[in-house]
Amino acid sequence: MYLCRRLTEASYPQIGEQFGGRDHTTVIHAYEKVERELVTDGELNKIVEMMCKKISP
Q1: Residue 56 contacts residue 48 (beta carbons within 8 Å)
Q2: How does DSSP assign 13-45, residue by residue?
Q3: Which are the contacts of 51, defined by CB distance < 8 A and separation ≥ 6?
Q4: I need a surface site. Which of 16, 24, 31, 34 has the fewest CB within 10 A?
Q5: d(Cα 14, Cα 5) in Å, to the nearest integer?
Q6: Cα four-point dihedral sign 20, 23, 25, 26
């Protein structure tokens, strides 16, 4: 969900729909949780950045 939000223009409801009809508040919670974790977890930050580079054109 985090990567979908970060790498696309999709709205929270659109992302939620693609993840099995999840509510937009679930997507917001997931996105914000990862954002908080990225601040304190250097390994997670490296992984997310690597994935973004591989996925982005």
Answers
A1: no
A2: HHHHHHTTS--HHHHHHHHHHHHHHHHH-HHHH
A3: 3
A4: 24
A5: 10
A6: negative
Burial class for 38, CB neighbours closer than 10 Å (0-12, 13-18, 19+):
middle
Q: Each residue of 19-37: b (16+ CB within 10 Å) or e?
A: eeebeeebbeebbeebeee
Q: For 6, which DSSP code?
A: H
Q: Is the pTM of this model over 0.85?
A: yes
Q: What is the pLDDT of residue 57?
A: 72
* 5 vs 42: CA distance, rounded Å: 21
Task: Look at residue 56 in the predicted model and tell me its pLDDT.
Answer: 84
